[in-house]
Structure formats: C-alpha cells, structure tokens
Amino acid sequence: MLYVVVLRYIRPMEEVQLHLDSHRDWLVTHMKAGCIVVAGPMPSRDGGLLLAQSEDRAELDAVLAQDSFHVHRVVEYDIHAFEPALRAASFPANWALEAKAL
Q1: pLDDT digits (tens, 9 = 90+) for 43-95
Q2: Could you tell me which residues come within 8 angstroms of residue 2 by beta carbon, excluding any fewer than 6 positions away?
Q3: 64 burial class (0-12, 13-18, 19+ CB within 10 angstroms)?
Q4: Dihedral of the CA atoms 56, 61, 36, 17 (nearest 10)?
Q5: 34 phi and psi, to 5 degrees?
Q6: Do residues 84 and 2 lie in contact, with contact meaning Cβ atoms separated by under 8 Å?
Q7: Cross-strand pairs, 6
Q8: Which end of the chain has fewer CB atoms within 10 angstroms, the N or the C?
Q9: Do strands 36-41 and 75-82 pair parallel, antiparallel, or not at all (unpaired)?
C-alpha cells in the first residue's frame, strides 16, 4: 500500500529547525529500508510531504512515531492511503505491484 503523508508544522519554525537534522537522519534510515519513497518540504514552507510504502497503516504509524518531528510534537500528519491502479513505466514496479504500467 502506498501512503501520501502531509506534514504540517504546528510549532514556530525556530522549534522545527531544532529537530531538522534528526528528522533528515530518520528520513535517510527509512528510505534505505524502503519505507519512504520520496520526501521534501512544500514550497510554502509550512510543512512537507512524503510518499511511503508500507504493508499496513499500523506499520507506517510505527515508523512515523520514530520521527523526531513527531517525538517533539512539531508536526501533525495527514495520511492518505491508496492502491495504485496505473503507473508510469518509469515508476518502480515494486512500489505499485498491481498497477498497470503505461
């Protein structure tokens, strides 16, 4: 299952910045593990977005619980699950097994 996770900062940017390095370390760890596919800040600078792959929501929640942004309560997550039906041929098949490649 793929998940779109929108992170919205709920604390002043000065507090968010204090945890940015550990948040990036968390991202790298879970990208290497294959859970987080892509991540980055939104142009508005009021949060970020990530695309994650997980067997189920409980597994994703366990990963998100390790994020320093979550631990220090500087973000709220808005999580949307979806099952890809179509994918670009260049999108890795292992992230959308049931999706038809175009």
Answers
A1: 999 999 999 999 899 999 999 999 999 999 999 999 999 999 998 989 888 88
A2: 37, 51, 52, 53, 81, 82, 83, 84, 95, 96
A3: buried
A4: 170
A5: 90, 5
A6: yes
A7: 49, 78
A8: C
A9: unpaired
Q: What is the largest CA-CA distance in the chain?
A: 44
16 DSSP β-pair partners: none
Scanning the chain, the segments in alpha helix (DSSP H) are 13-18, 20-32, 57-64, 68-71
Nearest Cα to Cα of residue 70 among 13, 12, 17, 7: 7
Angle (CA) 26-84-90 rounded to 5° is: 75
| C-alpha closest to that of 27 among 43, 51, 56 | 51
pTM for this entry: 0.89
